[in-house]
Amino acid sequence: MRLTQQSVLTMLEIYLCLAMFSRPVWGQLSPGPLSAAHRELEGVTKCAACHDFGQGARGFKCLDCHGEIKRELDAHSGYHTRLYKTTSRQTDCARCHMEHNGQKFSLVRFDRKAFDHRAETGYLLEGKHRTEECSNCHNAKHIAANARSGIQVKDLNRTFLGLRRECLTCHVEPHGGRLGADCLRCHNQDAWKPAAGFNHAKTRFALTGLHQAVQCFKCHVPKAGEKTPAYSGVVFAGCQNCHTDPHRGAFQAAKFRGTCATCHNTGGWKKNRPSGNFEHGLTKFPLVQAHEQLACAKCHRDSDFHRAVNHQRCQDCHTDPHSGQFEARTAGSDCASCHTQTKFKPALFSRELHQQSKFRLEGKHIAVECSKCHKPEGKATVYLTGKLQCAECHEDRHKAAFVAAPYNGRCDSCHTVDDFKQVKFDRPRHVQTRFPLTGKHITVECSACHKPTATPTAMQYRFASQSCQSCHKDPHETKLSCETCHTNEGWKPAGAFDHSATKFPLDASHQKATCGQCHRAPKAPLFARTPNQCAACHEDKQHGGQFTADCATCHVTVAWKEVTFDHDNARFPLDRAHRNVACAKCHKLQPGLVTKYRGTPLECTKCH
C-alpha cells in the first residue's frame, strides 16, 4: 500500500494525540531512545528534524546537519566519498550509523589497526608516516580555522575531519617561506635529511668537484639576525665570493684574466694545471700523455718552480711497485722497458717477450691469462716466480703415483703443453713397465684397466698385483690362476688341462665328454663346485629311481651295460641253477621301459 503525504500527516497527528494521553503507547511507537549525540532531538515532536515524511519511502536528513560530510561528498574527497551512495532520500548514512539504540550505543565503530588509509581515503601513508599514531596528525591544532566551525564534534581531538593533505598542515616550514610550500619537491616522507629530491645541478650554480662534498650551511649562511639558512640570494659571481685569494693578488694581471680557474679547478686546490701562457715543452722534461694531467705540485712540491727537479729515471719520482724484481734484467730496471707514459697498465711486456724468459710460453700456456700464474696482489705481485715445474702450478691429478723413479714427478714424461689428454705414453712404452702388453692386451683401451679411483680426478695407474684378477673377475670361482688354462692371446679355446690332477680323473667315456657337459653355469663354466656324483650329470631313466646308491656300485665308465653287480651281496644270493638264469627272467621289463629290480619276489612259487 502506498502512503500519500496527507495520510502520513494524519498518522503523525494521531501519534501526537496518543503521546499526550498515553505515554506507554508512545513507547510502543518509537523504535527506541536516541544516542547521546542526538539526545536533544528526543521526543515525538522532533522526528521530522531527521526523518523526511514526504511521499514515498521514509528518508533521512543527515546531510542537512552534517555539512562537513556534505562538503566532502561534494568535493569527492575523503573517507565518506567511497562509502556514500547518493540517493534522493539520503538514506545511506543509516547503513553505518544506526540510531534508536540508546545513549550508550556508539554511532561510530572504527578499527584503527585494520584501517587501510590509502584504500579508504586515497592518501597513502609512506615512510615515517606509517609508524605515526593517528592522533599525531588528527588533532585539534592541525585543523584549519575555516574548517572548525562546520564540524559537529565538539572535541576536535576526536574527529578525523578537517585535516588538509599539505605537509605544512602538520609541519613547520623551516625555510622562512623562501622555497614555497611544496616540501615534496626536495624532501620525502622517509626522512627530512638528506633532501634527496633536490638537484643542485638544476640551479644557477651547479656543484662540481669538491663543491659536491661541501656542507650546505657553508655557503647558505643565515642572514644577520636570522637562524634560517639563506637558500636564495647567494652571491657566486666569482671564487672570491666564498674563497680568499692565497696568492694575495699576484695573478690578477690581465694575462691571467684575474680568475682562479686559469690554474685551478673544483677537483681540488692542488690539482692545478699550468697557465695557458706556460709551455712545459720548452723545458728539459716536456709533459706528454699522463704527465700532462698532473698537478704542478706533484713535482714542484715546494712551489719553487725555479728549483731543478730530477727526472732522468722513473724512480726519481715513482717508487718501484715491483720491489726490485727486475733490477737484474738486461734492459735494466727502468720502468720504460715495460711501461709507457700513457698509463701504467697494460704493460708493454707481451707474450712474445715472455719467450725470452726462463719459461717459454708454448702450447696452451700461450692463451693463459697472466693473472693465472702471477696472482694479482697489487704491489706485492710476484713476477719472478721461479716456478718452472708443472707441479708448481698444476695439481697432481695422479695423486703422487709418478713421483718416484723413473718419472720423478715430471709431467712432460707423458704429457705435452698442447693438450693434457694427448699423452706421449703409448703402447710400445708399456713394455718398459712391470706389465708389458702382449696378445689381446695390446688392443685394449687404456681406460679399461686404468679406471678412476675414489678421488674423481685421479686414475689408477699403479697396481699392487699384475695377476689377471686385478682386472678380471674369475667366472669359474676357482683358486687356480687364469694362466693355468688360458693365455692372453684369447680366452677361447682354453689350453690343455690335466684332469687327472683333480679329484675326478677322466677315464673311458668321460674322456669324450666336453667340459660344458659337466661344468655348467648360466654365464661361465663352474669348476670348483662341480659335483662328482653320477646322478648330478646323468638322469636315472633305466631304473626309475629304484636305487639310492651311486651308479658306480654296479656300472663302470667304459660302458653302461658292463656291470659289476655282485648278486651274492643282495638279499637273494644266486646258487645252483639260478646262476645260469638270465637276469630278464626274474627282473622283468615294466611299462615305461623300466626293468624292475626292487621288489622282485623272493618266493619260489612266484617264478616257478
How does the SSE layout of this entry go?
Elements: H1 5-21, H2 23-29, E1 51-52, E2 59-60, H3 62-65, H4 67-75, H5 79-83, H6 117-121, H7 134-137, H8 145-148, H9 216-219, H10 296-299, H11 351-354, H12 370-373, H13 446-449, H14 515-518, H15 534-537, H16 583-586, E3 589-590, E4 594-595, H17 604-607
Antiparallel strand pairs: 1-2, 3-4
Helix pairs in contact: 1-2
Task: Give a verbal description of the structure.
There is one protein chain. Among the domains are: 5-168, no CATH class; 535-607, no CATH class. The model is unreliable at 1-12 and 14-26 (pLDDT under 50). Helix 1 crosses helix 2. The termini are far apart. 15% of the residues lie in helices and 1% in strands. It is built from 17 helices and 4 strands. The chain has 608 residues and is largely without helices or strands.
Strand content: under 5%
Structural class: little secondary structure
The total strand number stands at 4
Terminal CA distance:
135 Å
In DSSP terms (H or I, runs of 4 or more residues), the helix count works out at: 17
Order of helices and strands: HHEEHHHHHHHHHHHHHHEEH
Main pleated sheet: 2 strands, antiparallel
Report strand order across the widest sheet.
Answer: 1-2
Query: How much helix, percentage-wise, in residues?
Result: 10-25%
User: What integer value in Å does the Rg equal?
Assistant: 58 Å
**Overall average pLDDT:** 80
Question: What ranges have pLDDT less than 50 throughout 5 or more consecutive residues?
Answer: 1-12, 14-26
What spatial form do the alpha-carbon principal axes imply? flat
